[in-house]
Amino acid sequence: MGKTMRDHLLDTLKNLQEAEMKEFKSKLTDIKLETGYNHIPRCHLEKAEPVELTKLLISHYRVHYAVQVTTMVLEAINQRDLAERLRRATMAEEHWEYN
């Protein structure tokens, strides 16, 4: 069985170094979101490690939008390679989910 979108999201977050993770969480609290979505409260993000952060992203945004938000944040913090890898990995997964 292949990786799920959640797996790809978690793998991406695990690739961030400590300083990059702090920057990711900071940017996550102020990035522009689509109408109907709210930011994850900063107090929930502060101590969240990749596994917990993945759960928070999915519970707040659902998996497809969580991937989109993560990609936007990664690009905003100059982690374009990670953003592109996540985008490519999840595009393939999304194709299988809908077919």
Automatic annotation (TrEMBL):
Domain Pyrin positions:
1-92
Q: Which Gene3D superfamilies match?
A: Death Domain, Fas
Name of the protein described by the UniProt record: Pyrin domain-containing protein
Q: Which domain of life is it from?
A: Eukaryota
